[in-house]
Design goal:
The chain has 18 helices and twelve strands. It folds into three domains: about 210 residues, no CATH class; about 120 residues, Reverse transcriptase/Diguanylate cyclase domain (Alpha-Beta Plaits); about 40 residues. Helices cover about 45% and strands about 15% of the residues. Helix 2 runs antiparallel to helix 3. The protein has about 475 residues and is an alpha+beta fold. The protein has a four-stranded mixed sheet.
Length: about 475
């Protein structure tokens, strides 16, 4: 019998031994399939880490409901758990999800074998494997081990609780260090691999999540990039293409930075990649701060960001994680206050951008009505990223995620299925155009938390921009 505690809701989930073994086999086969022989060691470790970070969590969450067909659409439906001693037990005939919201199949809940609090087993296997591999990665890099040793150690840490499964053992054939480390961490052997024996105390501390007082050294860095004044950048202009494009640019710049981190250090070292913020572990500060800022400013041109690095010791990180993260957040705040904003000016004889109305125009763009309008590089980048093709791609992905199988049949006019501007969001009626725009703009301001004064400014801008959005 295995139990897992959802700390967010306080609900416990239980599964019997047969279910636990079935989930382990399913997870082991799926992650072993990522270790293709045509990939080098670094790519295999990144693929395993990405599977834990994305595929596994998509299969597990949400915990309590799935979806079922309802005509042309799908609707949410509660999953069939049974109550057992205050916990929710998985039914005997459970089938496990293989994708996000996979019908009415059950989430493959796999608690970690190593728990900080045995009485409250809240760690999932994904949490434990990713944390172990990330800390091992940066500590071994800082210690100066070779690349082959490093990447085999990453693989061993990412798969150690599944090493007894045939699929995982076969996938690690030809990688003796990865296999030996996985067996050591799982407890199948008491002998630490020879190549890692000088760092055995560090390995044990990372695996258990507890650092003895005698453990010294092994410093590494927490590095962060965070967009600032996001609303100012995204809602600089009221046109829907620019708003959509600005959001996509912020998403892309963080995704590209995360990809750079994964290629340079490792996928498992990415701790947070959401809300225009990236936080990751690095062996040393290096030049990450200027590299991240340069990438951000080149992409946004007029955005504002903060980047910082905070060095911490392994012992402090394991024992005082909150304090270490606070140190990084304070460093980000300090960088934000001393950062220099991108500068621009518009001389009296220069033509202003027709969209932001404050920066100098450097080119022309064609409006939906066919007019040529002056535009600045920042607004041009937003509109280019938020164009019809990008909107259509994102909209179609939402339909696929919703489980609508015949979504193509629902788009009677695919080229006009997703709104390209504020005018297209206003229903046809006999009202005057200014009154319709005011109603839409007021609602938009209210849902954004805008004050009445701000909503009035937004409404005025929309009325003047309606024809060009």
């Amino acid at each position: 019998m295995a139990t897992w505690l959802d700390r967010f809701t306080g609900q416990r989930y239980s599964l019997d031994e047969e279910q636990h073994d079935a989930i382990r086999r399913t997870v082991g086969q799926a992650i072993a399939a990522e270790l293709r022989p045509d990939r080098i060691l670094h790519e295999q470790a990144n693929a395993a880490a990405e599977w834990w970070q994305t595929d596994y969590y998509e299969r597990v969450f949400p915990l309590r409901f799935g979806r079922q067909p309802q005509g042309a659409f799908t609707e949410g439906a509660q999953l069939g758990y049974a109550s057992a001693d205050g916990a929710l037990a998985l039914p005997n005939n459970a089938q496990w999800r293989t994708a996000f919201l996979d019908g009415l199949r059950l989430p493959p809940i796999l608690p970690a074998e190593t728990q900080p609090d045995v009485g409250n087993p809240y760690l999932l296997a994904a949490d434990h494997h990713l944390a172990t591999a990330a800390l091992l990665n940066v500590c071994l890099r800082r210690a100066g081990v070779s690349d082959d040793v490093l990447h085999e150690a990453r693989l061993g840490a990412l798969l150690h609780e599944l090493i007894d499964l045939p699929a995982v053992r076969d996938a690690l054939q030809g990688l003796p260090l990865a296999t030996a480390l996985a067996q050591y961490l799982k407890g199948e052997t008491a002998d630490c691999p020879d190549a890692l024996r000088p760092h055995q105390a560090m390995l044990d501390a990372i695996h258990r999540g507890q650092a003895p007082a005698s453990l010294e050294g092994y410093p590494f860095c927490l590095v962060g990039l965070a967009a600032q004044r996001i609303k100012q950048y995204v809602f600089e202009t009221p046109g829907l293409p620019e708003i959509r494009g600005a959001s996509l640019i912020l998403d892309k710049v963080v995704a590209d930075a995360a990809r750079e981190v994964a290629n340079a250090i490792g996928q498992e070292c990415i701790l947070q990649q959401v809300a225009s913020t990236l936080i990751f572990l690095a062996p040393e500060p290096a030049d990450w701060e200027p590299r991240l800022k340069r990438r951000f400013y080149e992409a946004t041109q007029v955005g504002f960001c903060a980047a910082a690095a905070a060095e911490v010791a392994l012992q402090d990180y394991l024992q005082q994680y909150g304090a270490c993260m606070t140190r990084l957040l304070k460093a980000l705040d300090a960088d934000r206050y001393r950062a220099e904003l991108p500068t621009w000016e518009c001389l009296p004889f220069e033509t202003r951008c027709a969209y932001c109305r404050k920066r100098a125009a450097t080119g022309f763009t064609r409006s939906p009505e066919g007019d040529l309008l002056p535009i600045c590089p920042a607004c041009d980048a937003k509109r280019d990223k938020g164009d019809a093709d990008e909107r259509r791609t994102a909209g179609e992905q939402l339909l696929r995620d919703a489980g609508i199988e015949n979504w193509r049949e629902l788009l009677t006019e695919p080229s006009k299925a997703f709104a390209g501007g504020l005018n297209e969001m206003v229903p046809d009626s006999d009202e005057a155009e200014q009154k319709k725009q005011s109603r839409l703009s007021t609602a938009t301001g209210a849902t954004s938390g805008k004050s009445p004064k701000t909503s009035t400014r937004w409404r005025s801008a929309c009325s003047g921009r309606a024809a060009r959005s």
